[in-house]
Amino acid sequence: MVGNRSRTYRLHLSSEGTDLFLACHYRLARIARSFIPYGATLSVALLLMGSVDTDELVAELTMPSLKKLVGNEEHYVGASAQLKPFAGAILERIAASDHIDARPTVAKLHVAAIAIMAASEDRALARAFQRLSGAFQQG
To answer: What domain of life does the native source organism fall in (predicted)?
Structure first.
């Protein structure tokens, strides 16, 4: 039997960004009524981001408030290896839109996904968490 492959993702967050990630993690765990890995939080954040309209994504990525979440605190989060191509597909969609001058980094994408998750309703988080098990399974 082959298990799901995983990898470690590095988040560069400020103290405010770290607090926001932890608040999102706690909120998701409370909604799931379960102890969940940090990677589940990052995965749900990216799933939520993937469902956002491209124009809204570009607006989120260019928000000045996003800069406050990025910092020098390194955090390592284990999640599915399929998260990387999923994030790449979101970046390609943004680049193809011609609504942004420079292609954002994956690190900035992760931070924006956390901000989107923080602004999402509980039921959207619950739906994304339910989709999580099938979204990043190896096929």
So the answer is: Bacteria
In angstroms, rounded to a whole number, what is the distance separating the alpha carbons of residues 95 and 100? 7
**Structure confidence by residue, pLDDT tens digits, 58-88:** 999 999 999 999 999 999 999 998 899 999 9
Cross-strand pairs, 78: 8
Residue 139 clears pLDDT 50, i.e. is over it: no
Is 134's pLDDT higher than 80?
Answer: no
Closest to 46 (Cα-Cα) out of 138, 139, 122, 120: 120
Q: How far apart are the first and last CA of the chain?
A: 13
